[in-house]
Amino acid sequence: MLPLTITFLGSGDAFGSGGRFQACILVESFGSRGLIDCGASSLVAMKKHGVDPNSIDYVLVSHLHGDHFGGLPFLLLDAQFSKRDRQVTIAGPPGIEMRVRQAMEVLFPKSSETPRKFAVRYLELSPDRSTEVDSSVRVTPFEVRHFCGAPPYALRVDYAGRTIAYSGDTEWTEALVDVSRDTDLFICEAYFYDKRVKFHLDYTTLESQRARLSCRRLVVTHMNQDMISHLSRLRVEAAYDGMVIRL
């Protein structure tokens, strides 16, 4: 089995709670580097942690909210100006290419039309269908509950013998039991500590369902200030910017 190194470049919410960067998780295996989500602050997070943006082979996007995909225009523009010359793959929900192009045009008009020396390959993911991202990475999306103008996904990512699950943003749904089944690591949002809100998951609900999750390791992320203030009370691991996990 290939060893994996997972680095939380961003473990925060959309609003920078606790001074944290937005969702961005770096996964490294032999000869491959990818991101799971790429929030608007991700380029800064990569450079702060010494990660060369041009070393990223692929980006997996859970859903089309700015704190999860809004870093892609900056990643692509940085690649253009730093003379990247090899393909990058971006995989996400239906409409991912259009939304990235629209975001680029809002932020930097005409930037999506500028010729590049590298190819951008877009893959639209379909629920419960496995898609090969590269020779050692396959992703299977599970539809969850979160409004964002396109289907929101939890992601199950297989790395030649190791498996990571990621909830994206969602309220509790049975899909989380399925996506995390027998995985080596389940990275799950816990936006609030005990306040239940639509479209997001709170820690106490997650804890009440913990016995149903057959993942070997559970780490919570995407925490707001309320959740961060309760970190000492948690019975699971909590991510922080710069946290490294090796599987």
Structure commentary:
This protein is α/β, with parallel strands linked by helices. It has a single domain, classed as Ribonuclease Z/Hydroxyacylglutathione hydrolase-like (Metallo-beta-lactamase, Chain A), CATH 3.60.15. Helices cover 19% and strands 28% of the residues. The protein is built from seven helices and 14 strands. The strands form two sheets. Strands 6-5-4-3-2-1-14 form a seven-stranded mixed sheet. A seven-stranded mixed sheet has the order 7-8-9-10-11-12-13. Helix 1 links the parallel strand 3 and strand 4. The model has no long low-confidence stretch (mean pLDDT 96).
What descriptors fit this protein?
247 residues; alpha/beta; Metallo-beta-lactamase, Chain A; seven-stranded mixed β-sheet; 14 strands; 19% helix
Main sheet characteristics: 7 strands, mixed
CATH architecture: 4-Layer Sandwich
Shape: globular
SSE succession = EEEHEHHEHEEEEEHEHEHEE
Q: Determine the CATH superfamily.
A: Ribonuclease Z/Hydroxyacylglutathione hydrolase-like
Q: Structural class of the helices, strands and pairings? A: alpha/beta
Q: What is the beta-strand fraction?
A: 25-35%
Oligomer: single chain
The number of helices is 7
